[in-house]
Amino acid sequence: MSSGQRVAAAKGMPFANSPVLTAKLSAGRSRFVLFVMFAALLALAGRAIWLQGMSKDFLQKQGESRYVRTLELPATRGKIMDRNGHVLASSLPVKAVWAIPEDVKDAPEAKLLELAKLLGMSKRDLDKKLDSDKGFVYLKRQVENDVADAVIKLGIDGIQTRKEYKRYYPEGAAMAHVVGFTNVEDVGQESMELAHQKILAGVAGNRRVIKDRLGHIVEDVRAIREPQDGKDLTLSLDSKIQHIAFTQLKEAVEAHKAKAAGIVVLDIKTGEVLALANLPTYNPNDRRALTGAQLRNRVLTDTFEPGSVMKPFTVALALERGFVKPETHIQTAPGKMTIGTATIGDSHAHGVLTVEQVIEKSSNIGTAKMALQMQPQEMWEMFTSVGFGQQPKIGFPGAVAGRVRPYASWRPIEQATMSYGHGISASLLQVAQSYMIFARNGDTVPLSFLKTSAKPIGQRVISEKTARAMRKMMEMAAGPGGTAPKAQVPGYRVAGKTGTAHKLAGGKYVNKYIASFVGFAPVSDPRLIIAVMVDEPSNGKHFGGDVAAPVFATVTANALRALNVAPDTTKTNIVIPAQGLKESI
Amino acid sequence: MNARLTSILALALVASSLFLVNAQYQARRLFIELERAQAQKRQLEIEWEQLRVEQSQLGQSGRIEASARRDLNMSAVTPARTQYLTLGAK
């Protein structure tokens, strides 16, 4: 390559002949230019070393803070399902709308008015929320996604949304007392939601990522910490039976103008709770006007004097100890009996009754006579071993133990009244569980609110023979000659016992009642225990046989049908005597 | 000879750098796509949950009973008008 070929294209003149080359420069100026250029180069090199070497860490940190982000990966709360996989509670993502009040100040009034309308609040409330010197205020939480999208579409400066979860309860009020509810942060507050908070709540994860200018995630900086979603919970409840129990209870409360009521259905074979309902109840999806009375899970937390429902335990103990046989005659006339200074009595004199008839007619005198032959300790042990006075081990917050006084302090009159369920208190769940010994062949099993597949291990309390004898007596009580003919169910043999007790107010019995019925069916091979309690029925009737037994009958009929249990009797015409037998209180 | 090797290596270097740039670009593009797919998966999961809640809501025993009674004029069976058949019985 020779220089002669290089040609300045514009002028067509060879480079060597360029006049610039011939211009003479003074040596001083040329050296000065050279020096300046070197100095500039040095300055650049120095700057590069400074940036690369000395302030590298600081600059890297600054850079990262501009494009590396830590993202929170929220964990979803586990679902709650019934035994058939029917969803009872599920968390779905919604949005929280929040604002930076400072930035919203200049927003046009018309748009704010629209925002207030979208959020379902008045303009005044909205202004009140925005009139704050905080840097962050929630305008509304748990907003549905489409509403939140519309809010964002308004394009008001300083109004933003954040993802959060809302718990939905598709079964609503019917299941409220078992499932419970969570607060706005999705943390369990009541019942199963509270009891199993640890299992249901997940562990949030996070990831560090690089985002590009458009906000896309471009790269993971380090391994993702995956969120661990909460585990699903399968309850022992059967939503079909729950619905049956709830609607029947509701009808009874309305018909008898009662203050409250409760019902519980147990599976005898597994000890699982199939249904548990209370009235009054609430809608867990809308808890704005929630009162304490609605919140009360009466079946578990309210104790009452069970009354005659307790009689079978006294009789069972008498049979066990061999004091009596089912056919033994007991004189109950004249229907009154004085122990010490107190007198107890039956609603009317029955005369001579067999032990079976004492249960059938629910005689206080008959039961008390048997009880007075026993040691207080024996009775106390009997009551305790079936769960009275003991806190039920069921993992349910707030379940109470009820009260059975220590036997050392029992006076004879108290022993007599306790034998028919006075001076003792228990929750409806305890009463229902105690009947396990009759419905099963003499043993009792622990209860469970979670679906179990393992067979429970029973604890024997009475012999199989006694249990069978008691079943026969209780079938008579729930028959045409007993105190609860209205408990009869077409097609199925049922057994049970009524209870009616005065309520205590300020240490005195008042003319307010609690009517109850506890029973099981079908008698040939018991499947369900159903216990019903109606508090202060005040529409003329207050006996367990009139108020609680009909609820038992309808629930039993429908629940057994729902469970595909074959009928065990061909008797379908039910006889209910016109003049019912009055129960002794 | 030496100059030729240098120029070949220089060319190879340039090519490799270009490939690197391209590979990085592709990686980021695919990563964004993966992100998008994962977001879609989450969205679908949420929808699935929503549908399950809805199914539960529509499948409420109360609702079914009400529409069976009201709209379809049905009534519950009772043992009185049910014929039970037992396998092997006469």
Write up this protein:
The complex is a heterodimer of chains A (585) and B (90). Chain A is of the alpha+beta class and 585 residues long. Chain A contains 23 helices and 21 strands. In chain A, the strands form 7 sheets. In chain A, strands 4, 5, 6, 7 and 10 form a 5-stranded mixed β-sheet that branches. In chain A, strands 12-11-21-20-19 form a 5-stranded antiparallel β-sheet, with helices on both faces. In chain A, a hairpin with a 2-residue loop joins strand 19 (495-505) and strand 20 (508-521). In chain A, helix 11 packs antiparallel against helix 23 (549-562), helix 14 (311-321) packs antiparallel against helix 21 (464-477) and helix 15 (355-361) crosses helix 21. The N and C termini of chain A lie far apart (128 Å). By secondary structure, chain B is mainly α. Chain B is 74% helix and 0% strand. The termini of chain B are far apart. At the A-B interface, strand 5, strand 9, helix 11 and helix 23 of A face helix 1 and helix 2 of B.
Strand content of chain A: 15-25%
What's the story with the biggest beta sheet of chain B?
none
Number of distinct beta strands of chain A: 21
In helices, the fraction of residues of chain B equals over 70%
Distance between the termini of chain A: 128 Å
By oligomeric state, this entry counts as heterodimer
Proportion of residues in helical segments of chain A: 25-40%
- Using only CA atoms, what is the Rg of chain B? 35 Å
Mean pLDDT of chain B: 87
Strand residue percentage of chain B: under 5%
Can you tell me the residue ranges of chain A where pLDDT is under 50 for at least 5 consecutive residues? none
Q: Give the number of helices of chain B.
A: 2
Count of runs of 4 or more consecutive helical residues of chain A: 23
Mean pLDDT of chain A: 86
Parts with pLDDT < 50 across at least 5 consecutive residues of chain B: none
